[in-house]
Every structure is written in C-alpha cells, then in structure tokens.
Amino acid sequence: MNSTPRLSGQLCDDGWMDQGATVAEAAVKAIPGIRIGEEDGDSSILQESILWEVNSNPNAGWRADMNAAFSNYTFTQFKRLLGVKPLPKDRLLDFPVRRHPESLKVTLPKEFDARNVWSHCSSISRILDQGHCGSCWAFGAVESLSDRFCIHFGQNISLSVNDLLSCCGFLCGDGCDGGYPILAWQYLVQNGVVTEECDPYFDQIGCSHPGCEPSYPTPTCEKKCKAGNQVWPESKHFSVNAYRVSSDQHDIMAELYKNGPVEVSFTVYEDFAHYKSGVYKHITGVSIGGHAVKLIGWGTSDRGEDYWLLANQWNRGWGDDGYFKIARGGNECGIEEDVVAGLPSPRNLDLIKSAAIADLNPNL
Predict the structure, then answer these.
(1) What confidence score (pLDDT) does residue 351 get?
(2) Which GO terms describe its biological process (predicted)?
C-alpha cells in the first residue's frame, strides 16, 4: 500500500496540533508525512523491546503482548492494513458537522456499551477480519450502518464490505490501498450497499478472509449476487446522509447513545499492534498510518481513566478478544476528530421486504 499520511490534529503526545485551534480548524489541518525508515519494512511488527517498554511503565495503563494475529507479520505487511487516507481540506468542508443539544449531553450515562443496550442486534458484537487488505475505511462504515439498520428499523442484517470496497472505486479512494471514510458514507447515500449474503467478503476456497498471500488486490465490482436467491438491486440498503460528528467528546457520546455505533479514524503507532488489554495510550514507536474502526461505547477504568470502547476488524486473536479501549477526552491519537456516520434510510426497504416474503412464500 502507498505510504499513508498521518491523520490530522493532535496525535497522541507529540503536540502537533496548535492548542489554540478551534474544532473546525483542527478538522481541516494539513496532514504531515509518516516517519518511517525503509530499512524497517522487513522486520517483525511485534518487538520484545516494545513489550518491555510498555509493560514496565507503571503509568502506561495498558498491557502489551505478542498478539497471535500478527505473529508472522512484517512492518510492511502490518502497514498495509492501515487504509485511512486524509481527505483534502476543501472536500472535508462539504460535509456538515453534527452537534447534539446540551439537554441530551447532560443526561448521558457514565458508562455505555452498545452490545448490551441493543443486545438483539448481533452485528454490534461481531468481530471480523479484514485480511491483507487496507479496507478498514469500508469496514467501519458498513459495520456501523448494519448496526444502525437494526437499531432504527429492527433489521438484524449484515451488509457487504465487499460491495463498498470493490464498487466505490476512485470515488472512495484506492480500494485495498486505502480510502476516505466520509466518502464511503457519501457513496452509501447515493448507491447503497447490498447484504453480505449477496456479496460476501469471505471467499469460498478455504481462506477465512481475503488474502491468503501477503497482499490482496482490490476485488472486481460485479454487481451481481454471488449466491442465494437475492437480486442485486433488491438487496441495496442506503444511508440518508453522511456527516461528521463534532470533536467534543460529549457530542460523540450523544451520537452513539442516540443513533448507534459510529466510524472513527486514528493514527496507529508501532505499540498499538501489541495491545492486549487496558486503556491504550501511545507509549513508544513511530507512526505507521491511519486506521478506521467502529466505536461502540465508553466508560471509566478502575484506575480512573476515561476510555472509548471500540471493535476492531483484526480477528479475535488481536487485542482484548478483538476489542480495545483508548483514552477518552484528550483526542488520543486523533481518535475524537475524525468521527463520521449517517442514518439508515427507509429507501428500498419495501422492495427488500417484498423479496424476502417471496422467498418464504414462492407461491405468492
């Protein structure tokens, strides 16, 4: 994958963002390049020295481990997973910033976990695997929209990452070589996305996810359901809109509380590959790239650290059974400044329901 620039704003502890900048100004800051030495590309992403530095630090607040998911990954292979590209300033301003009323924000609970609040929505607690493809930008969008269809319309469905990844093309970025989360949501408004059953991300030849080899090319857009009785147009699910969420932590919490999981992007450092448990804060290692995941909750640790709860798509062999917590309220690694979402649309739902009824009652 091409070298991925760092995300905008205050990135962990390096104080890059002007502390006097407003939220709007911070959101459109230019994004400097990543500091990576080419000679590091073939070295293992997992390093005993990083484990020691994190686990021996009494103020770290989290535990590092040699995560099984990346036991054979080189630095370069890991970097390919980080597929968030920075959106140019003029394009970013095309999208509205959503804020919530104080009357809602003052009533928010101290802890929130979407898996428990909407326990009937199985998609919220699902941990997937993006394989050797920088498709995180597509996963974050599609998984959040799947959850919101269940929350708002009672549809317990899985939408297709493969559809968005392969068919959005240059409108969203470069497929497996990275994309723009907010443009993915814009595509969902205009073109929608089919179900996972119609266009699965997982292949049918024995691999558990795309990319049995060290790299994986962007799949071809076929616009035809691969299995089952589904028809491509009838399987489409749309978003009403595409918007950014204010960087204020309480606006982010209110958005999650009211409408369901959102897509967030942040800067990944070397030590993040080693995360096992606790509340992550950048301790050591260079920045590698931008990554997108799904935000599902918040809380406060036993140590008194406020955190965000997130679902990654690196399988359950990474992190805390596929999940992680990151420090909340200080824009750790830019986690609070690139929050995007959209509301599920009733468009096409009557057609979808009619098709489902026809499948169940072929004589109708």
Answers:
(1) 56
(2) proteolysis
Residues of the chain with pLDDT under 50: 1-39, 204-209, 211, 354-364
| Whole-angstrom distance, CA of residue 45 vs CA of residue 273 | 7
Please indicate whether residue 291 is annotated as part of the active site: yes
Q: Per-residue pLDDT tens for 266-313?
A: 999 999 999 999 999 999 999 999 999 999 999 999 999 999 999 999
- The helix (run of H) or strand (run of E) holding residue 236 is none
- Annotated active-site residue 207? The verdict is no
Using an 8 Å Cβ cutoff, are 118 and 150 in contact? yes
Distance of CA 17 to the CA centre of its chain: 23
Helix axes 249-259, 136-153, angle to 10 degrees: 50
Residue 177's φ and ψ, nearest 5 degrees, are -100, 15
Q: Are strands 243-245 and 97-98 parallel, antiparallel or unpaired?
A: parallel
Is 274 in the active site? no
Copy the structure tokens of residue 191. 């073109």
Closest CA to 78 of 215, 180, 217: 215
Q: What is the CATH number of domain 23-360?
A: 3.90.70.10
Cα separation values, 281 from 15, 309, 359, Å: 14, 13, 50
Chain segment 185-201, per-residue pLDDT in tens: 999 999 999 999 999 98
At residue 20, the pLDDT reads 35
- From the candidates 291, 315, 331, 333, which is the catalytic residue? 291
Given the residues 12, 121, 133, 136, the one annotated as active site: 136
Contact 112, 253 (CB under 8 A): yes
Taking a C-beta distance cutoff of 8 angstroms, is the pair 21, 29 a contact? yes
Q: How far is Cα of residue 179 from the mean position of the Cα atoms in its chain?
A: 12
